[in-house]
Specification:
globular, six-stranded mixed beta sheet, five-stranded mixed beta sheet
Length: 332
């Protein structure tokens, strides 16, 4: 137990602001022995109910009026440029400085959702998540996070002996590489509709439909007009061989992508996969060739072979990451 476990903890206002929901909470403590934050007053409501982030925050703070947080961290699903934040789906726009002054905060950080995922990684609860690939994590080395959802996000928690920082990236727009003959045939088909076949072209909600269409063409079958949910349903019921082949390929091929990002990030501290899609494909992912394709990196196969991969199914990741962002900056 360190000094921090018994000392006063100034509450942190944390929020996860998405296109659909705004989720707020207060972090009221940190237990060093369990490495867990105390999350209280967790409150979620539809983002569209409020005209601005300020009005949503004012409403939340009115529900916890007995607590007056002086530090805050917001995880947002949108770009942050020069202190300006745009939440495209909501039409919300705010200035980080204006927000800080409006709520009389001493400390405010605004990070994107994948940066929050990276900050959260060391504070996750192993019992709530799923080991996809066992390995030996180096506690002092970088951690990579990635995941397919609406798009494809990727980030890295860079750790040195004295500090850590998050490196955000546009890993979803790396060109998707073919490892075997089927991959190459699929890329040829995908190129007919997508001049740049990126990781996100396949590994995202819309990407599953793109992959299905390419798989049907490779197999010489007429593609139906199916979305990701329909493809998953037909694959799981065994009604459509092309749909099943699509999801199997999705799980195999993402192993290669994860291995590429682990190499690029030097992620000997582990690789964590999140996003909205893979937790729903858990059984298929665990039965796939993910491990083989993750590790298959030529002369670096021993390097990737030792990296553990975890599928994150735990809730509250952006809130934990927002808390960790401020907590980490004060440990240095």
């Amino acid at each position: 137990m360190g000094l921090h476990s018994s000392t006063h903890f100034d509450p942190i206002l944390v929020a996860d602001i998405g296109g659909t929901n705004a989720r707020f909470a207060l972090i009221t403590g940190f237990d060093e022995s369990s490495n867990q934050f105390t999350i209280e007053h967790n409150h979620t409501f539809p983002s569209a109910s409020y005209g601005s982030l300020e009005s949503a925050t004012e409403y939340y703070l009115s529900t916890v009026s007995h607590i007056n947080p002086k530090r805050a961290c917001l995880a947002v699903a949108g770009p942050i440029n020069a202190g300006q934040v745009h939440l495209t789906n909501l039409g919300w726009h705010f200035s980080v400085n204006d927000f800080k002054h409006h709520f009389d905060l001493e400390q405010l950080s605004v990070i994107n959702d994948f940066a929050a995922f990276a900050y959260a990684a060391p504070y996750l609860d192993p019992s709530q998540n799923v080991t996809v690939k066992p390995g030996q994590a180096d506690d002092a080395a970088n951690i990579g996070v990635m995941g397919p959802g609406t798009g494809f996000g990727a980030a890295c928690l860079v750790r040195t002996a004295h500090s850590c920082a998050v490196m955000s990236s546009e890993g979803g727009h790396i060109s998707l590489a073919a490892v075997n003959e089927l991959d190459a045939q699929l890329i040829q088909e995908l190129k007919k509709d997508h001049p740049h076949v990126s990781v996100e072209t396949v590994f995202s909600g819309p990407g599953i439909a793109h992959l299905y269409k390419a798989m049907a063409a490779v197999k010489g079958v007429a593609a139906k007009n199916l979305d990701a949910a329909q493809i998953s349903s037909l694959a799981n019921s065994g009604e459509c061989e092309v749909c099943e082949a699509t999801l199997n390929q999705f799980c195999d091929w993402i192993g290669s992508v994860a291995g590429d990002l682990a190499l690029a990030y030097g992620a000997l501290g582990g690789l964590y996969i999140g996003g909205g899609i893979l937790p729903r494909m858990q059984a298929r992912l665990l039965e796939s060739r993910f491990i083989e394709r993750f590790s298959q990196k030529g002369i670096m196969s021993q390097y990737t072979g030792q990296i553990p991969v975890t599928l994150v199914t735990q809730d509250n990741i952006p809130l934990i990451g927002a808390a960790a962002c401020l907590h980490t900056s004060q440990q240095v």
